[in-house]
Design goal:
The chain contains 4 helices and 6 strands. With 138 residues, it is of the alpha+beta class. The longest helix has 13 residues, at 99-111.
């Protein structure tokens, strides 16, 4: 698991925002750095990963399933000018984001000219495995 080898800096924890709780971390593994904002509600956890190494973010996202539940959905935006991205992953064991709800959110995104990709859990796992398969000397 990649999290065991990461340096985690807590920016804040247990901040109450409405009916949710938020945690914010900087996570690094060698030269890879990600800012993670977790939003936790009773049935759903939303993790927002920002950084430059998409495979590292996917490895973190996959590693967090043991804490947050199954990946229900995700969307990502790449910023070509800076070489960075934002990956938002929705987790739950008890709440399912069904096809109709996903289509509603995607329609909202398109109406607001949000240029998102929608990686599925299998592609997140594939990117995570790509990161895990590379040599990362400690």
């Amino acid at each position: 698991m990649v999290l065991k080898k990461c340096e985690i800096k807590v920016l804040f924890e247990n901040k109450i925002v409405g009916e949710t709780m938020q945690n914010n971390y900087n996570i690094s593994h060698q030269s890879n750095r990600i800012e993670l904002l977790e939003t936790i509600s009773p049935n759903l956890v939303i993790d927002n990963f920002k950084g430059k190494n998409f495979e590292f973010a996917c490895a973190l996202a996959h590693s967090l399933c043991f804490r947050h539940g199954n990946i229900q959905w995700a969307h990502a935006k790449r910023f070509k000018e800076s070489g960075s991205f934002e990956l938002v992953v929705y987790y739950s064991n008890s709440y399912v984001i069904d096809k109709e709800r996903k289509e509603q959110i995607m329609f909202y995104h398109s109406q607001n000219n949000f240029d998102f990709e929608y990686p599925n859990p299998a592609s997140i796992l594939q990117s995570a495995n790509s990161y895990f398969s590379k040599k990362h000397p400690d």
